[in-house]
Every structure is written in C-alpha cells, then in structure tokens.
Amino acid sequence: MKLIDSLILEFEHEAQTTRKHLERLPEDKLEWRPHEKSFTAAGLASHIVECVSWTDAIFNLEEFVFDPATYKPYQATSVVDLLETFESNVQKGKQALASASEMSLEQPWRLKVAGRLLFERPRSAVLRDFVLSHVIHHRGQFSVYLRQLNVPVPGSYGPSADEQG
C-alpha cells in the first residue's frame, strides 16, 4: 500500500471517530467548561473542527503564514453549525488528499508565525502532527468533557465503557 493511501484511510477513520464524538455535544452545554482555564465545550469542539481544515492548506499551499494579530479562530454557534463545518472540512481534506501524489508527501511545507519561519517539514509529517495527532489529542480531551457532562462516550479504537453495557 502506498503512503498516500494509508494516510487517506487514517484521515477517514479519524474523521468518522471524531464525528461520533462531536455529535454527542449537548446544545445546552456549549458554554460548559471543566475549569476556568479550559476551553468551553464549544471552543474545544470548534478547535478540533479547525484542526481538520488544515489538511487543505497543507496540500494546497507551499506555506502558511499565521498572524496572531489578525487570527480569529472558528467558533461554532450551535451543534448544527459545528457538524456542518466539520463535514465541509472533512470533504475539503479528502479532496486535498485524493489529489496528492506520493512525491508531494515528501515536499517541504512551511509554517510561519508573523512572518518568521517556525518550521519546514515534509507534508506527510505535518499532516500527521498538525492534523491527525492534534485531532486525536483534543478528541481525548473532549471525551473527558462528555464523561463529565454524563453523556455516553463513543469508542475510538474499540468499544467504550458506555458501549459495553
């Protein structure tokens, strides 16, 4: 199996698993947070959705210039908005991956912050770190939010305690 095919399968699997988590966010708990320093539930879910959107930039731009002075993070206004934006980002990500070649995976991609180079790495590594691992990390946090809200937690890599009966 080619690396691009493996990445597409991994992206699709993680999107499916993430969708199951996001769908469980109660509409009346968007502003809930477990601690004053934590994201709100909507804020964390929105960040997960935004992470997925980076797939398109990784494969369709040579570099991304992040400007903290003008950056406005995506903030879902409802669960419907969250899920619609997630689906749109997943579709764009799938399209970007479908058009990628094996050679493009090793091409360098740069992230600049306020014009200063933060890093330059192969696209495949950036996808794994900035999208896949980042989503998995925050989805783990989000599953704790669901647990604390007494919402049944879906399984990620097997059944959760809630799914076992």
Folded structure, characterized:
With 165 residues, this protein is mainly α. Helices cover 55% and strands 10% of the residues. It has 5 helices and 3 strands.
How many helices? The count is: 5
Biggest sheet, spatial arrangement of strands: 1-2-3
Give the tally of β-strands. 3
Order of helices and strands: HHEHHEEH
| Overall shape | globular
Distance between the termini: 37 Å
User: How much is the radius of gyration in Å?
Assistant: 17 Å
Average the pLDDT over all residues and give the rounded result.
96
Structural class: mainly alpha
- Major sheet characteristics: 3 strands, mixed
Q: Residue ranges: pLDDT <50 for 5 or more in a row?
A: none
Helix content: 40-55%
Beta fraction: 5-15%
Brief characterization of the structure:
By secondary structure, this protein is mostly helical. It has helices spanning 3-22, 41-60, 79-98, 102-105, 123-148; strands at residues 63-66, 108-113, 116-122.
Based on the model shown, name its key terms.
165 residues, mainly alpha, three-stranded mixed β-sheet, 3 strands, 10% strand
What is the topology?
Blueprint: H1 3-22, H2 41-60, E1 63-66, H3 79-98, H4 102-105, E2 108-113, E3 116-122, H5 123-148
Parallel strand pairs: 1-2
Antiparallel strand pairs: 2-3
Helix pairs in contact: 1-3, 1-5, 2-3, 2-5
